[in-house]
Amino acid sequence: MIAVMGAGAFGTALAVALARGGQGVGLWARDAGQVAEMAASRRNERRLPGVELPEGVTVSARLEDFAGAQTVLLAMPMQQMAGALGAHCAALQGRALVACSKGIDLATLEGPTGLIARVCPGLAPAILTGPSFAADIARGLPTALTLACADPALGARLQGELSAPTLRIYLSGDPLGAELGGALKNVIAIAAGVVIGAGLGESARAALVTRGFAEMSRLALALGARAETLAGLSGLGDLVLTCTSAQSRNFRLGQALGRGEGFDPAVTVEGVATAAAVSKLAAQRGVEMPLADMVTALCQHKITVAEAAEALLSRPLKKE
What we know:
By secondary structure, the protein is α/β, with parallel strands linked by helices.
């Protein structure tokens, strides 16, 4: 059995895909009312409407019901991960923990695997990330993801365990690079949404995505990640997806900012907290991150879109 902690859209979609591939999956939600609804209807209408839960998916609000699961997928928002790990660390002992979150903890400036290693020392952390929308995974559309783990043997085991007929898993030994790619692309996706929302055009978006990738790579390499990881699914692949599709919540938030419109505060947008964390992290390391700084300022309503565009376009000319 595999356990999935977090019955949001992505956690539910992973549970559905793995169960269709023949795995027994335990889907955990902290809200007992949501669990009761899912158990009765065999759907998660709150988070992933219209998708049937296969017979192989068991839902519960009690993590101890999945004591037999040697692999646990952590599919909760990044800013909630530290609290969830702290509350359940004892129950997770002896298991492999696979983070499915994309972000940087705002309080500690840690990525998912670093957070796991600190809060639950002794547990084996890995990360599953890459270009994917929950709706696509749940519908059985072909999706390729990166599974990154520092332990080659554990990584190979998890790669086989988490693969499914329409879910192709590529293995990486660079969890730092994989998690940074997944986190940083959300910041650039907000900026891309701003460009389109403000009517600045497709050429401007292409330029922003290109310079955004350079910015992502600059910070990731400074922190010790591998360049080839950023050029793979977890970096460039995810960046392309989220900067070009309105299915991305980060892109939609950027569009709303570009249009001067409000955005539903109940919708989790990982890139907002990540942008603020990235700006702090980059300042500590002396890495120039003008797009991340611009997104941070826009999300905190410290500048207008016009001021952000003028500041970026008036930067000194330089070599590519």
